[in-house]
Structures are given as structure tokens and as C-alpha cells.
Amino acid sequence: MNLTSPPRFAPLAETTPVNPEHIRNFNIIAHIDHGKSTLADRILVACGALTQREMHAQVLDSMDLERERGITIKAKAVALDLKKDGVLYRLNLIDTPGHVDFNYEVSRSMRACEGSLLLVDAAQGVQAQTVANAYLAIEAGLEIIPVLNKVDLSAARPDEVKGELETTFGIEPSSVLHVSAKTGLGVPELLDAILTRIPPPTGDPAAPLQALIFDSVYDVYRGVIVFIRVRQGTIRKGDVVRFKGTARTYEVLEMGLMRPRMTPLAELSVGETGYIWCNIKNIHDVNVGDTVVHESVANEVGSLPGYREPKTMVHCGIYPVNNAEFEELRKALDKLSLNDASFTYHPESSEALGFGFRCGFLGLLHMEIVQERLERESGVEIVQTAPNVTYQVLTRNGEEKEVERPSDLPDPSEIEEFREPIVRVSLLVPADSIGSVMKLCLDRRGTFVRTEYLSTERALLTYDMPMAEILYDFYDILKSATRGFGSMDYDLTGYRADHLVKVRIMVASEDVDAFSFIAHRDEAESKGRKILERLRKKIPRHLFAVALQAAVGGKIIARETIAPMRKDVTSKCYGGDISRKRKLLEKQKEGKKRLKAIGGVEIPQEAFLAVLGEEREDTGKRKN
């Protein structure tokens, strides 16, 4: 089957009502670059949702950023109609991201589904994120359909990959489907499996309304558009509904399905996944995971189970380059937080950068994507400081505090325990790279947990590691050590006490909070020295020597000196006794001493931006 061939199932009118017994809700889960979006495109074409003229690659990846990077950033829902043996079916498909940083999008989509297509590249085999997503589906109680993609490649090894699926998840090799999303091979059989293996939704259309909000977007013209999955009852245009979590009441002005364009309908019933528009202008009035009920029976109807709140683990400061654009940046963050519920922000200020926001992210790629979206969608030019993780401090009076930046740390004399976040890292690597990967993990203070062999050629290593150690260049080094074949996934397991210290950076004996950082005691000196070397190159010379120091508590652990500008005061001393030259030099020395005592060192903003930018560059941004 190719893109120009007629679909096997006849497309139907978009407003045709469907019996709940004939609805199938499912998502596509896979490791990054295993072909989720391409398969979604193929299913759209096979069901006749798009004409050949409307078709293009990555139809559901609507953001330019997604197409440029070739990754899915946000989950997308689409409703498809097809007919088989005279029976009308509706497929509600959700395409999900594959990168570990967007795992929250995957977990949200599963609350709106009864089944998952577990997609595995027939050449690359089971990867770390494949394992993580599969267990998410198992925990959610979804029916899993294993699918091998790219079986038409010459490098495909379907039998070996089936063995990996059986070893890892206990999946029968005979139940695994073979497809090629690029050519369309096996797609009709996949649609048949979706209809026969995935169960229909349960619920009573006549019962009081209960609908789960699983996503939302902000439209500049229409305000907030809410995406819901109807669990019980029926919702119609004109109904007055209440959002249980916020206790807000609205009238439903429009509702419908994503086809993939918004297509209005008169009502949505049990099992349907669609959108509602209620002219909501305040973006804080909608919470993902909230329950929509009819206002008339709102007090009698309970809330549906929501989502586990995402735990932001990477934090950085975001500031406008022009301080006059602070309010524009606030509005842009408000809108983006509605489209991406997994990042947090609150105002903060810096002596060097002015007023800005402290933002929390799920990972380094998530942080990078948010920065690019802010600049593209709002037009505000921003400055982003070096990222850091969240720490915990147990004080001597028994109080626990979360620390997002070094300046929030209490006095060292008040700290009983200093804890750092620990993640369980799963590493899928070739068998001949196990030694180099284990050395990498031990160098990053990792603790060995176990080793499992998926086959004779591939192994799954599990380590407990400080998140700060994998935040920067760990993924890039892993790829180099495994010749590009390694993959990783991680999950927060808790916090662990260790010998952590705050390294203060001082310029002319004055603390500069923007450069201070938290590190393990063994690494504090080397990291502090790197910061000082950068500062020495960026801060302009003064008429007196400027001392740059890194300190832990009251102990100086590193020092650099910016040499003073010198003027030859003896140049106009033509001959004469040597004592005259000495007198001029001593006078100059006294003048510089007085200047050092009463003068301050001015650090230009360019120096802050350059040093912070170099630090981010040194981290080795994770490649996609």
C-alpha cells in the first residue's frame, strides 16, 4: 500500500454518531525516532482523514520546532472514522513524544485510552524509553499491541527483536505485528488488530457527566480550548458545566472532534475524546487532570482520579534582555504553562540581570525547548542562566527545605544533612561496551544495581546516580562510548545525603550570588577554578589588582588575579637621581592603595552573560 492507493476502509461523514461499543481509544508509545509520527500519518491516510493534497510528513506535529528537530514535543489527539464489514468504528488516536523529558505527556495520554501500540524499531530493537513507556502502559492497565516498525530495512532483525520483547516483557512473538510506516506495509493488519484487541470504553451515556481534562491549549483569538475524555454521561452544546477542581462554571459554546482540524459536533458521549470551547480567558482557570461535570448535579458527582503531579528536577533563571519586557515575558510564560503543564515558574530578581523568573523543568531538553518556544511565540529576547537541580536540606531543628538555587541555602551551621536527588538510570548498551559504560557510571558517583541481558549482544545496566552528574554531558559521553548504540532512561527515586558544599564566588572580596553553585566536596575546587578562569578573561582590568576567589565556608579553595592597568609614571623623569623615580613609584602605589580601598569593581552585564553562556556550552547540550 502506498500514499496514492485508496484506503481499505471507506471514510464516512465527520458528524456520524458512533455506538460506544465501536469506539477504540489508543496511543502510540515508543523510544525517540522509532517512527511514531510516521505511523500516525499512515493511519490517517489509511482511514481517509486527509486527502493526498493535504498530506505532508508529521501531520500531527503542528509546531515548526517539532518538524525542524524531527521529534514530537506535545501529545496530539485525532479522531478517525472507518467502516469494516458494514460496522462504523471511531478510532481516537493520541500520538505521544518519545524523549524521556516529555514522559509526562505520555502518562497523561494513557488516562484517555484503553490500549497502546508499543512501537519498536526492527533494526534498533528495544531501547531504554521503550521499557519505561511499556511499564507505564502496564501500570495503567492498558491493552498493549506490540508492533515492529521499519521491517523493510536491510538492517532489520525482526526475530532477534521479538526475542528481546519476550525477554523484557514476556510478549509472545506470534502476537507481534510487522509494519513499515514509510511504505504502508502491514498497516491494514494493524487496523484490524486495533479493532479486535483493544477493548471498547465502558460507561453509561445516561449517567451524570464525568469528563477528564487531559490537555489544553491557548488560542490568541478564542482563549483556552480544553481537551476532554468523556468517562460517563453526555455533554452537549449549550450545557452549563463546572470544573470541579477550580469550582468555575461555564457554558459550552462549541464542542467537537479533532479530525485533525477542529470539527464541531452537537454532543460528545461516553468514550469520545474531543474538545470544548467555553470562552475561558483566564488561563489559570483550567487544570489538566480536572473533572468536568454538569452544574446542576455538581455536588453529587465525584471527581475522576487526576494525574501524578510532575516533579521538576532542573531549574534555571530566565530573564528578559530588556528589563522593560518583563511583563511580556510573564504573559508568555502564562500562555506556555497552559500548553505545557509540566514546567513551573515564579518571579525572582538578580543584581546582575534584573527581574526575571525561576523556572523548573523535567530535563535539559525540556528546558531547551521551552526557551526556544518562548523566543519564537512571544518575540521576547531572553537570557537563560546555567541549569541546576533541586536539593534538600535538613536543618538542626528538624525542618526540611527544598533548595532551588545556592542563595536559598541556610547558614552551614544550621545544616544537619545536605541531600541531592538520586535517579535510577537504565542504560541499554551493546555487550562489548559494558566495561566503558560501567567506568563512566563509577566516575559519576554511580552505585551499581543490576545487569540484565536482553540478548547475547545487548545488556541493560541499572545504576543509582546523582541527577547532577547526568544533567550535562553524560548522554553525549554515553553515545561516544557505545558508538551511538546506547540509550538511557531515568526516574527519580528520592534524595540521599552526601558531602555537598556551596561554593561562593567572590570578586574583590564581595560575594556574587549569580556565580555561586553547589557541588560535591571532591569537585568543588576544580569547578570553582574554571569559573574564576572565565571571569578573569571577561572582567575588564582596573587601575588596581582585582582578586577573584572561590570559597567554601571561610576557606579559599581557588584564586585568580586580574592584573591592574599600569602607567609608566617615570616616563617624564628625564635623568636625575634614582631616588626621584622611586618617589614617583611610591606615590603611584599609595594612590592605587587608596583607590582599592574606596573603589568598587564593576562587572558588566556582558561578563555575566558570557560566563553563564560558556557554562551552558560546556555542559554539552543533549543531542536529539
Would you kindly provide a written description of the structure presented here, covering whatever features stand out?
This protein is α+β, with helices and mostly antiparallel strands and 624 residues long. The chain has five domains: 178 residues, Rossmann fold; 88 residues, Elongation Factor Tu (Ef-tu), domain 3, CATH 2.40.30; 72 residues, Elongation Factor G (Translational Gtpase), domain 3 (Alpha-Beta Plaits); 106 residues, 2-Layer Sandwich (Alpha-Beta Plaits), CATH 3.30.70.240; 116 residues, Elongation factor 4, C-terminal domain (Alpha-Beta Plaits, 2-Layer Sandwich). Helices cover 26% and strands 32% of the residues. The protein has 14 helices and 32 strands. An eight-stranded antiparallel sheet has the order 11-10-16-7-8-15-12-13, with helices on one face. Strands 2-3-1-4-5-6 form a six-stranded mixed sheet, with helices on both faces. Helix 7 crosses helix 8. The longest helix has 21 residues. It is globular, with a radius of gyration of 29 Å. The two termini are 31 Å apart.
